[in-house]
Design brief:
With 289 residues, the protein is α/β, with parallel strands linked by helices. 35% of the residues lie in helices and 20% in strands. It folds into two domains: 2-196, Rossmann fold (3-Layer(aba) Sandwich), CATH 3.40.50.150; 200-288, no CATH class. It has helices spanning 33-43, 62-66, 80-90, 119-132, 151-158, 199-206, 210-217, 226-236, 243-250, 260-272, 284-288, and strands spanning 2-4, 7-9, 52-55, 72-77, 93-96, 110-113, 138-144, 161-168, 180-187, 193-194, 240-242, 274-277, 280-282. The strands form three sheets. Strands 5-4-3-6-7-9-8-10 form an eight-stranded mixed beta sheet, sandwiched between helices. It has a three-stranded antiparallel beta sheet with strand order 11-13-12.
Length: 289
């Protein structure tokens, strides 16, 4: 338990802290202080005096209190009463304002905390994080698992961030109904994903032409795979085609930025069909003829 002046601050969830910000409406729960400390120690043990940490939407400053004293850190919160409380609890500078818009005194190397469980609000915050962080900078948040619920959402994040996640117990917060996780977003030119599987593949599949997608999904009696997709495309091209022609036969009518399926087509063509030229493949009968 920590103390705000003479008033104890419970390590459990807190109700709406003031009339200024509807935290319940944003599905925002305050992180237990011991959990904030454990998360910082586990994921940011290498923080040093060279770092600057921001806790956006800092509430009463649970994560600010967990940052080592020799590391520069400050918070931001919309609610002036919460900002004042966070400043008292942590001894840190806390700015009153909207993290997505307010001018900040120092550029961060790390941004972490427990943002509202509202995906529109969170995505706006993540956009600001990307703007503020230099390459190799990190943003990490306690989030509902549904943040990474769909393939298209994860693939959208991966365009700008390397992603990883670690499950946390839902009953860390009394009354919370959704599973939660600690999600890390690392700003990198070449992004990678850890702990998330089949998202890019499913997003690619959803971008195929309807007949190709139907073939790939199949049913219990007629399972299919990428080899069937490439074979169908080769047949549509007269039995012989370049990779460019195969891509054109397979892709949807709308442009897609997802490159995963093209790489899969190239691998499958090289593995299962006859190479008859540079980047050109054929069905066996047509190649033999």
């Amino acid at each position: 338990m920590t103390f705000d002046g003479l008033n104890p601050i419970s390590d459990g969830p807190v109700g709406a802290p003031s009339a200024h910000v509807d935290r319940k409406g944003l599905n925002q729960f305050f992180t237990p202080a011991w959990a904030a400390e454990a998360l910082v120690q586990r994921h940011f043990a290498g923080l040093s005096a060279k770092d600057t940490v921001i806790e956006p939407s800092c509430g009463d400053g649970r994560f600010l209190m967990a940052i080592p004293d020799d590391v520069d850190a400050y918070g931001v919160d919309l609610d002036p009463l919460m900002a004042a409380r966070a400043a008292r609890n942590s001894g840190r500078e806390v700015i009153t304002g909207d993290f997505c818009k307010v001018d900040l005194p120092r550029r961060p190397t790390v941004i972490l905390g427990n943002p509202p469980f509202d995906m529109t609000v969170f995505d706006q915050m993540l956009d600001r994080c990307h703007e503020l962080l230099e390459n190799e900078g990190t943003a990490a948040f306690l989030l509902p698992v549904y943040t990474f619920q769909t393939a298209s959402r994860v693939v959208g994040y991966q365009k700008r961030w390397s992603l990883s996640q670690e499950m946390l117990p839902r009953n860390l917060f009394a009354g919370l109904q959704c599973p939660i996780m600690w999600a890390t977003f690392k700003k990198q030119r070449q992004t990678v994903v850890s702990g998330l599987f089949l998202y890019a593949e499913l997003d690619a599949l959803q971008g195929l032409k309807r007949d190709m997608r139907r073939l790939m999904v199949g049913n219990d009696s007629t399972p299919t795979c990428w080899r069937d997709i490439v074979q169908l495309a080769l047949q549509a091209c007269g039995g012989r085609a370049s990779l460019t022609e195969l891509y054109g036969a397979i892709e949807s009518n709308r442009p897609t930025a997802n490159q995963w399926w093209r790489e899969q087509v190239r691998k499958v063509a090289a593995r299962h069909f006859l190479r008859v030229g540079a980047g050109e493949y054929a069905l066996p009968l047509q190649a033999a003829a």
